[in-house]
Design goal:
InterPro entries: 5peptide_repeat, Pentapeptide-BTB/POZ_domain
Protein name: Pentapeptide repeat-containing protein
Order of helices and strands: HHEE
Structural class: little secondary structure
Organism: Desmonostoc muscorum LEGE 12446
Radius of gyration: 16 Å
Largest sheet: 2 strands, parallel
Shape: elongated
Pfam families: Pentapeptide (PF00805)
Distance between the termini: 38 Å
């Protein structure tokens, strides 16, 4: 259950939230189970936040900092993530559909066991990301940076890997 104080601060707007985060760097935001659907959280500092089971349907997270956030079992449907930093984020068993991932940093993110078929990861930073047993069939990975990524058991059938960097990737 989300911390109600944290939700109240977030409802005051992104600027108030980011100011609070700056003044309280030791606090780990707890927004678990919150419904943040259709909320504009662009440029929000959600680094390290607990976002398990959170509803982020049609939420604007463009340019948001979600590095190290736990988004396990969260619903991300038509979520805008362009330019967002999801490095080190946990997306275990999250429901992902129709995402805008353009220019997103997903370095060291965990997508193990996901169905990511037909996803557009074109030009996305995915180095050190974990795609163990993920379904990437038909995904557009053209120009993606997959250096050191773990793709063991991943389905890459008909995936577009043109100009992708697979240096030191584990296949």
């Amino acid at each position: 259950m989300a911390n109600q104080e944290h939700l109240e601060i977030l409802r005051q707007g992104v600027q108030s939230w980011n100011d609070w985060r700056e003044d309280n760097p030791e606090v780990i935001p707890d927004l678990e189970w919150a419904d943040l659907s259709r909320v504009d959280l662009s440029w929000a500092n959600l680094s390290g936040a607990k976002l398990k089971e959170t509803k982020l349907i049609e939420t604007n997270l463009n340019n948001a900092n979600l590095s190290g956030a736990d988004l396990s079992r969260a619903d991300l449907i038509q979520t805008k993530l362009s330019g967002a930093n999801l490095s080190g984020a946990k997306l275990i068993s999250a429901y992902l559909s129709k995402l805008d991932l353009s220019n997103t940093n997903l370095q060291n993110a965990t997508f193990s066991g996901f169905n990511l078929s037909e996803f557009n990861f074109s030009g996305v930073e995915l180095s050190q990301a974990k795609f163990i047993k993920a379904d990437l069939s038909g995904a557009d990975l053209s120009g993606a940076k997959l250096g050191g990524a773990e793709l063991i058991g991943a389905n890459l059938e008909q995936a577009n890997l043109s100009k992708a960097n697979l240096k030191e990737a584990k296949l």
